[in-house]
Amino acid sequence: MTLIDVTTWILGPFLGIMTFLFIFRIILTWYPQIELNRFPFNLIAWPTEPFLAVLRKLVKPIGGVDITPIIWVGVFSLIREFLLGQQGILTMLSRLS
């Protein structure tokens, strides 16, 4: 098993899970009465909040709507496609070895 294979095995699930969590985070914004500090919602908020906090400093809410989770879904999806997609960098490198 090469370093590229190990990286793919780690990076693939990580990017998939983070995308999934950010989609859930978007759905949770539809219900503002939910407390994100309570179980099970803290399982979604805890890993996503550091990413959102950084981006919220750069992107202000548009019309009172926080779009940062949407941006992160796009970023993680794009990274996953560039690295692990059918024509992704790691995919192509693993075919060479």
Furnish the topology, listing elements before pairings.
Blueprint: H1 3-28, H2 42-56, H3 68-84, H4 89-96
Helix pairs in contact: 1-2, 1-3, 1-4
Number of helical stretches of at least 4 residues: 4
Q: How many domains make up the coordinates?
A: 1
The counted number of beta strands is: 0
Helix content: 55-70%
Biggest β-sheet, characterized?
A: none
Helix-strand category: mainly alpha
Molecular structure report:
The protein is mainly alpha-helical. The chain has one domain (3-96). 68% of the residues lie in helices and 0% in strands. It is built from four helices and no strands. It has helices spanning 3-28, 42-56, 68-84, 89-96. Helix 1 packs across helix 2 (42-56), helix 1 packs antiparallel against helix 3 (68-84) and helix 1 (3-28) packs antiparallel against helix 4. The longest helix is centred in the N-terminal third of the chain and has 26 residues, at 3-28.
